[in-house]
Design brief:
By secondary structure, this protein is of the alpha+beta class. Among the domains are: about 190 residues, Beta Polymerase, domain 2, CATH 3.30.460; about 160 residues, Hypothetical protein af1432, CATH 1.10.3210; about 190 residues, Alpha-Beta Plaits (2-Layer Sandwich). About 45% of the residues lie in helices and about 10% in strands. The chain has 31 helices and 17 strands. The strands form four sheets. The protein has an eight-stranded antiparallel β-sheet. A four-stranded mixed β-sheet has the order 3-2-1-4, sandwiched between helices. A hairpin with a 2-residue loop joins β5 and β6. α18 crosses α24 and α27 packs parallel to α29. The longest helix has about 35 residues. The two termini are about 35 Å apart.
Length: about 850
């Protein structure tokens, strides 16, 4: 395959494409016999057929053009004495060198000579170049010895990349072989110092030309995900740093790198033929004709093919550059560096050499949830998933059983709660076919171009972008898990030929049951998808002052306050992810006012209380002493830890802190009291390996209670040593470390007044991002302020916690509540500061999801 073995992008001018030779390739049509004497007439004749039945297809046309020019150059060279052992050779680079010559490509040629007499060299060069100039054929040429060409290649990156594609055409083949082998040997030798320049030149090109997958009029050659990127992978393969093909399977979306490259090459060939001149940017007015010529369909079908191919190439480039960077040869003291340390990230998941990989004892064939754990670890840390790990998961990981285990859903929620950091892992899963394995319904919207020009992105990237924005609003709602799930699924019904809200609601029910949600949560998720347009449409198209408008919304939602707040957040996230200017002050004020009026109509708020204790828990509490018990949840990694101990100050902080110190991530917790003892029940997941022995936990609880174990100090040390930096990659892909304690959404503290007849105090509800030992830290703050915790209910939903504490305050006043809220907020992760150019979803400088003329 030329683009794998030949090297980087074209060097000495416009690079291009391929085709069959004069009357030699079956099915391509004969080349006129006048080709040797009239090259221009032959080219015109090839492009003159307007009847699709008579003209060559894109690949056939490229091959005919290559063989036509090869024939002409060989014949003309023979006339000039350029024969074997003549000391002269004609070498092609660029499109002709790769055998990928487009209808209006430049000819990139080198006349090599073996240090011949200058007069003879000038005579041969003039005899070769002047006929081409006289024929008005665009020509980029040079005349050099082998040593001169190698010297230029050592100093000029473009020249080096072009010579990596060099191909012998005519004359002294040993002279051409000397150049080709020499430039490849020189490239491999110098790659350590030239690699940074190669990467920087690619990034400059991407900044100028944008992302092909998300441009209305993409540059097929120079844009990110374009033809030059595949040629760059070829250059890295020539340096023996990558295999040039990535690790995509043929059944992955895009069908692998070779197929994606061929599709873009065919589109670019037809663009040249239709435009009648060299053009790299696909314009809207040409899209329908190109789609018809290639039998793809209309401009929307063409846009989908372009997006799919460009994203496949873009992913392969990411993997290729990362692999090449890690494979660069070491010199000097760098050779003495110790091998990278494998650091645990999750059960079966470790970090190695800056990538997320599988632990040595991980068995993908027996662990269906491993895919999501790997993706969640990647999003949390900002480290890319190893291509070999993804390939291994694609080959061996089984389907998740239905309904999903609770840990799998939790890992999905963690992934969806990481804001813009989720985009890269989801894209990697999607390109390798793993995302479609988790969500088979995704295939209908993958690379689906929007029909409405107000939409910036393809439907699948819009869904991911909506989840990105929704993750910054999780503390606004009481069910952050349903918010991010609804954001991910709300437009999943598109592309199916019916009302996408109705179809999507049915799909959401199906998916919610697969995820293992409770029936009432499935109903809420389905209602979110069914009514995700209700608030913005009603607020902007009906009279907000008419009581019937408010009553209509309340009746439609069945008076469900939780659903109303979820739809309000989803409406904003959906609008922000649609495109610039869709969500503004006017629309925001209308929707907010409508929500406020609906809440007035709806009745109060239900106060949740914990379930009663079991008989066994009551008996142990009455017996006194400290009891620690760990029970397994069948079929999962989850454990239930019960700690019963005499009541005293700081007990909740110490017990929850001890669990965190032992790598037990708390997902839910319930704190109750009976007969002078506290019964703390924690539902936990070990971060790595098996949980500790209950006896060890009991001993540490006793030490912490006695003051000989400083839990908070140990937690701070553990957090500082945690290998979980959140990376915030900018558009050019360079990882930028961001402190791990930043949250996607700002924390919130809500106060709920309890029923006075119940004899309990007010309820504090904390909504914030999770961190190591958060429950221990928050409860320690409350206890330091002299507050008694009557009961507590703790739940971790993805990366967001919703912790509810029923408190007994010695002085219940607004000032006291404000002081407590400030103290609690001080120990939770603050919201992540915006970057200089904030791009939660893919950048907003592109237009309409790569749809020409959408």
């Amino acid at each position: 395959m030329p683009f794998v073995t030949s090297g980087g992008a074209g060097s000495t001018g416009d690079d291009d494409t391929t085709g069959p030779g004069p009357g030699s390739t079956p099915g391509s049509g004969p080349v006129p016999s006048s080709a040797a004497s009239d090259l221009v007439a032959a080219r015109r004749q090839l492009l003159a057929h307007s009847d699709a039945a008579q003209r060559d297809d894109a690949a056939g046309l490229r091959q005919v053009l290559v063989d036509l020019h090869d024939f002409w150059l060989t014949t003309k060279g023979a006339e000039l004495g350029i024969r074997p052992d003549s000391g002269f050779a004609i070498v092609a680079v660029g499109g002709l060198g790769r055998q990928e010559l487009l209808p209006h490509s430049d000819l990139d040629l080198i006349l090599l000579h073996d240090d011949m007499d200058p007069a003879r060299v000038a005579e041969v060069a003039d005899g070769l170049w002047y006929p081409l100039w006289d024929a008005h054929i665009k020509l980029d040429h040079s005349v050099r010895t082998v040593s001169q060409a190698l010297q230029v290649a050592s100093q000029d990156m473009s020249a080096a990349l072009g010579l990596l594609e060099a191909r012998h055409i005519a004359g002294d083949e040993s002279l051409s072989a000397l150049l080709i082998s020499g430039v490849r040997r020189q490239w491999r030798t110098d790659i350590r110092t030239r690699f940074p320049q190669l990467v920087e030149s690619a990034r400059d090109r991407w900044r100028r030309s944008g992302d092909i997958a998300h441009r209305a009029e993409p540059d097929l050659k120079n844009g990110r995900g374009g033809l030059r990127d595949v040629q760059m992978l070829g250059a890295l393969a020539a340096a023996q740093l990558t295999d040039g093909m990535g690790t995509l399977r043929p059944d992955s979306p895009g069908a692998g790198l070779q197929t994606a490259y061929g599709r873009l090459l065919d589109i670019r060939t037809e663009l040249h033929r239709i435009a009648g001149r060299p053009r790299e940017q696909l314009r809207a007015q040409d899209a329908d004709e190109i789609g018809a010529a290639l039998r793809i369909g209309d401009r929307f079908d063409l846009a989908r093919v372009i997006s799919d191919s460009a994203r496949t190439i873009g992913y392969s480039v990411d993997v290729g550059l990362r692999t090449a960077g890690n494979a660069l040869p070491r010199r000097g003291l760098a050779k003495l560096r110790r091998s990278p340390v494998r650091r645990p990230l999750d059960e079966g998941v470790v970090e190695h050499a800056g990538e997320v990989v599988l632990a040595r004892n991980a068995i993908p064939s027996k662990d269906p949830g491993l895919i999501l754990r790997v993706a969640a670890a990647s999003a949390r840390t900002g480290l890319p998933m190893s291509a070999s790990t993804l390939a291994r998961l694609a080959d061996h990981a089984p389907e998740l059983r239905e309904p999903w285990p609770a840990e799998a859903l939790s890992d999905l929620l963690v992934l969806l709660g990481t804001g813009r950091h989720m985009v890269a892992p989801i894209e990697a899963l999607d390109r390798t076919g793993l995302w479609g394995r988790l969500l088979p319904e995704w295939g209908a919207v993958r690379d689906l171009p929007p029909r409405d020009p107000v939409h910036t992105w393809t439907v699948d990237r819009h869904l991911v972008g909506t989840a990105v924005y929704a993750s910054t609003m999780t503390t606004r709602v009481s069910r952050p898990d349903l918010l991010v799930l609804g954001a991910l699924l709300h437009d999943l019904g598109k592309g199916r030929g019916a009302d996408h809200s109705v179809v999507g609601a049915e799909l959401a029910t199906q998916i919610g049951n697969r995820f293992g949600l409770w029936p009432q949560d499935v109903a809420t998720l389905s209602a979110m998808v069914r009514h995700h347009l209700l608030l913005p449409v009603t607020a902007t198209r009906r009279d907000p002052d008419d009581p019937a408008t408010t009553q209509f919304v309340v009746d439609t939602l069945g008076g469900d306050r939780v659903l109303l707040e979820l739809l309000a957040a989803l409406a904003e996230a959906d609008s922000l992810a649609t495109g610039p200017g869709v969500w503004g002050d006017w629309k925001s004020s209308l929707v907010s006012e409508l929500v406020r009026r609906c809440l007035r109509v709806m009745d109060g708020e239900e106060l949740h209380r914990p379930d009663p204790l079991t008989d066994e828990q009551r008996a142990r509490a009455e017996a006194g002493g400290v009891h620690v018990d760990i029970a397994s949840v069948p079929g999962s990694h989850t454990r239930v830890v019960t700690v019963i101990a005499p009541d005293g100050p700081g007990l909740l902080s110490t017990t929850s802190g001890v669990l965190a110190l032992n790598g037990l991530r708390c997902h839910t917790a319930m704190v109750q009291s009976h007969a002078g003892s506290v019964v703390n029940t924690f539902r936990v997941i070990p971060a790595f390996g098996d949980p500790p022995d209950p006896g060890l936990l009991r001993q540490q609880v006793l030490q912490a209670t006695a003051g000989t174990l400083d839990v908070i100090r140990r937690l701070d040390k553990r957090e500082a040593e945690s290998p979980v930096p959140v990376a915030s990659p900018p558009e050019d892909g360079t990882p930028v470390a961001v402190p791990a304690l930043f949250a996607m959404a700002p924390p919130r503290v809500l106060w709920i007044d309890a029923d006075p007849t119940a004899g309990s105090g007010p309820v504090l509800e904390l909504r914030a991002a999770d961190r190591i030992g958060l429950l221990s830290r928050v409860s320690a703050v409350l206890e330091r302020h002299g507050v008694d915790i009557v009961w507590a209910m703790v739940e971790t939903l993805g990366g967001t916690v919703v912790d509810t504490f029923c408190l007994r305050l010695p002085d219940d006043s607004p000032a006291r509540r404000s002081e407590l809220a400030d103290a609690v907020i001080a120990v939770v992760p603050p919201p992540e500061p915006p970057r200089e150019t904030e791009t939660p979803a893919p950048t907003a400088d592109s237009a309409r999801g790569g749809v020409p003329g959408a």
